[in-house]
Amino acid sequence: MVARDPASYTDPNGYVYWQDGRVYRRVHTASHLKAVLAAFGDDPRLATARVVSEDAQGLVLEHGRVAPASYPQEWPAAMLKDAATLVVEVALAAAEKGFGLADGHPWNVFFDGPTPRFLDWGSFTPADPRLLWPAQAQFNRFLFYPLHLYAAGHAELARARLADLALGVGPALALKTLPTAYRLTHPKATLGLLANRAAERLTETPRAGTAPTATGDPAMLAKLRPGYFKGILRDVAAIRLPGPTGGWAAYYAACPSMERAQEDAKLRLMEQLLARFKPATVLDLGANTGRFSLLAARAGARVTALDQDDASMALLYREAKAERLPILPLVLDLGNPTPATGWCAAQRPNALTRFASDMALFLALIHHLVFTGNHSLEQVAQLARRVARRTAVVEWVGPQDAMAKYLARTATKDFGFYTLENLVAALEAQGFAVEALAPHAPDRRLLVCSCLPS
Predict the structure, then answer these.
(1) What is the spatial distance between Cα 438 and Cα 447, in angstroms, rounded to a whole number?
(2) Sequence-distant contacts of 43-46: CB under 8 A, at least 24 apart
(3) Tens digit of pLDDT for each residue in 292-347?
(4) Is the peptide bond before 44 cis (omega within 30 degrees of 0)?
(5) What is the 8-class DSSP label of residue 243?
């Protein structure tokens, strides 16, 4: 079966399609692409690609698959900064090899665990004879300016605008949002914002940032490009993001529910379950700083870790990079996960579809979903069935647990339904066979939920 990727329809020079579970790219204008492939060889910054056929319509490349797909609004700020660095590094490498890069947005970057890869080989073009980088405005809107918003403490706005492919963060919005003190301490960025806002006022569409227009000398542009991209790299590196501290990042250090021996007992139970089920992929929901994500990755699984706290995911991202572990840490609110978006709501699949895994972990989570999120046990079981392909591990945190009491202290709702028996019944109604392990702490135990054949 051949299926065109629903996200691939705006590129005039080709498209991506799937066949028998493998991913291919058709490139129509391919006169330069063989030279690009030869020049970049096995560059690890790019997703692997090889020519599988050539005809009158161009080339067909087979890509190495990078999964699962994640999107810029889901990345912690540190990942967005690494994506920005990658895009400019690829543009610099292209310039040094005599080519151009037509795109400057983050949608061409996927994360292979904690490692960013540039996907779009079709973005390479012959060097532009008019501009240093035609994609400068695109890069600014979807990478450079959002990073400045993160640095200035406006993460919510940055995420919201990254979700919109048409808008991003324009210079007018950045100027209006960034505090005066921040703009004064970042004069170079501020001057660029003022210049770009003036340029956009002169035209109906954004111009190419502050990139110089034609000099009448393409050879001179070719000489200038490497230094130009190195300057952008310095500007990106100079953006100081908030440190990964505070909030839920300190949860384990301050958790009133579990003593160290009890946490260790829980770790041993999870080690046993990972060895027993041997999942190839694991989804860690409400991962916090990723103690169990790290455990699963060290056991050989590819892990997607989700938490709504950017600082927690930044800490996990740093550790995954340091150990080169296949962990993808993402910022996501389980009560409002990324929906399906784009044309016919099929261009970019929803988060739960993308992140479904062999094993899903609901550790130290259910009391947050019920007492803070006002979700029912049936809704928790429904979520578990949606994201677990084979097994869900749900930690029961009973109403007498210290943290459960803390979360429920201001609730006016009657939580009489919150019992272990009702949770097991809800999970069984969703098609799970439930095995309750021995308690590892007072009023806490793991439920091993195996998907029954439908």
Answers:
(1) 9
(2) 43/93, 44/115, 45/86, 45/89, 45/90, 45/93, 45/116, 45/117, 45/118, 46/90, 46/117, 46/118, 46/119, 46/121
(3) 999 999 999 999 999 999 999 999 999 999 999 999 999 999 999 999 998 889 88
(4) no
(5) P
Amino acid at 57: Q
Half-sphere exposure of 134 (CA within 13 A, CB side): 14
Q: What is the pLDDT of residues 386-415, one digit of tens each?
A: 999 999 999 999 999 988 998 888 777 889
* 176 contacts: CB under 8 Å, gap ≥ 6: none
CB–CB of 45/29 below 8 Å? no
Q: Where are the alpha helices (DSSP H) in 124-170?
A: 136-139, 145-151, 155-162
Q: How much is the mean pLDDT over the chain?
A: 90
Closest CA to 288 of 253, 258, 323: 253
SS3 112: strand
Q: Which residue has the higher pLDDT, 440 or 10?
A: 440
| Predicted local confidence at residue 252, as pLDDT | 54
Orientation of helix 310-323 relative to helix 291-298, angle to 10°: 30
H helix runs in 215-288, sequence order: 218-237, 251-254, 260-277
DSSP string, 286-320: T-TT-HHHHHHHHTT-EEEEEES-HHHHHHHHHHH
What is the separation, in whole angstroms, between the first and last Cα of the chain?
25
State how far Cα 363 lies from the chain centre. 21
pLDDT at 426 over 70: yes
Maximum alpha-carbon separation in the chain: 77
pLDDT tier, 167 (very low <50, low <70, confident <90, very high otherwise): confident
**What are the tens digits of pLDDT across the range 94-111?**
999 999 999 999 999 999
Residues 6+ apart with CB under 8 A from 67: none
Parallel, antiparallel or unpaired: strands 109-112 and 115-118? antiparallel
How wide is the angle at C-alpha 400 spanned by C-alphas 423 and 249, nearest 5°? 85
Name the helix (H) or strand (E) containing 187. Answer: helix 187-202
What is the pTM assigned to this prediction? 0.92
- Report yes or no: 353 and 389 within 8 Å, Cβ to Cβ: no
Task: Return phi, psi of residue 315, to 5°.
Answer: -65, -45
Backbone angles phi, psi at 382, to 5 degrees: -65, -45
Check: CB of residue 71 under 8 Å from CB of residue 338. Answer: yes
Give the rounded percent of residues in the chain with a pLDDT score beyond 90: 71
Residue 211 scores a pLDDT above 80: no
Whether residue 206 is predicted with pLDDT greater than 60 in this model: the reply is no
